[in-house]
Amino acid sequence: MSTRWYPIYQKGNPQLRVFLPNFWMKIVRPQVKQPANMVKFITSVQMTDYDIKNYLEKIYKVPVANVRSEIVEGELKRSKLGYIIKDDDYRAAYITLKKGETFKFPDICEEKQKKDESDFKKAQEQAKVSYEAFTSRNKKRPGVPGWFSF
Amino acid sequence: MQFFDEKDNWERDEVRVGRAWRIPELRIKSNDDLHKLWFVLLKERNMLMTMEHEYKQKFEPFPSPERLDKVNESMVNLEEVVRERNRAYFELETGETGERPGRLTPNALGMNYWYKASEHVVPPHANGTWWRQKHLWYDRKECAQFLTYYREKLFLAKRKQRIRDRNHVLGLLRRFPDMDMEALKEQYPTVDIERVKRWKKATGHFVPK
Lengths: 150, 209
Prior knowledge:
The complex is a heterodimer. Among the domains of chain A are: 25-97, 2-Layer Sandwich (Alpha-Beta Plaits), CATH 3.30.70; 108-138. In chain A, 26% of the residues lie in helices and 22% in strands. Chain A contains two helices and six strands. Chain A has helices at 49-59, 108-135; strands at 25-28, 38-43, 64-72, 76-78, 84-86, 90-97. The longest helix of chain A has 28 residues, at 108-135. The radius of gyration of chain A is 28 Å and the shape is elongated. In chain B, helix 2 packs antiparallel against helix 3 (66-93). Chain B is built from seven helices and two strands; from the N terminus they run H-H-H-E-E-H-H-H-H. By secondary structure, chain B is mainly α. Chain B has three domains: 7-93; 102-133, no CATH class; 140-202, no CATH class. Classes of the chains: A alpha+beta, B mainly alpha. Chains A and B meet through strand 1 and helix 2 of A and helix 2 and helix 3 of B. Chain A: Belongs to the universal ribosomal protein uL23 family. Chain A: This is Large ribosomal subunit protein uL23m.
């Protein structure tokens, strides 16, 4: 089983059980505004809609009402040297949560950006103060370069 | 949703974490524990992938990206341990490894590759489509020609390497005549050092002892 090689399914056989699933899923911010109970995922291409539903319900205990998914072709790019690069294909899945459930994508980078901005401003002010201290040494001798005095 | 990291880690530049699970540590765990650990790792990987994607979208650096590598390494190790147990069980019960069967077969260019066998609904003798797609008509003569050229290329590369090694050893012998011969032999096993030592190129511009 752990070799990831499963016997072929014949009608009447017991359902295949996956003991160590290696499927991956990630929540992404949808490009177009979605209703509050809709979540966009990017998943591995091999997953089916049933797999996605079971994965979310069994592993994450998320109540899923509906799953809709499609395979999105990876972007084709041309490198500077002229050859063509293609990104990996992925499956985009749109999940509707059950009644009463809502989801809002958290602002993860916003606080960090704010903090970085304030840090930058602090450094700027510090630089301003030190520059003033540097130039004030030659205040009485205008036109003399800063390095002249010691 | 458990797809996101803890809120404290959002604005950090670095998240300090431990190392990956190693194989000997996983060997002493029970099957049940390994099964639980797999899902912990799976969730962690999903979380990290979600965060990485979000940071990438916002043009921000992802804090401690080595976490993903650690989780992946742990998962590979865990799967290796489970596979080991599976193999042991199958060998005990059936005398076979229980791994996916395969064999070496030549492809259309006449080169061998590892064919991974899989189960089919229709047996091969009854599957006309498969016989027609199998391309049994390829030109054996052209294949032989191709393989000759291919082997020549491999041979030339090998010979070039051998000569390069020998010349390097000659230079070493010329510059450092008192070096450790055992170590040299170990590092360059293709060079016959006893033979090469007497060559003119291997002796420096000094009177030999």
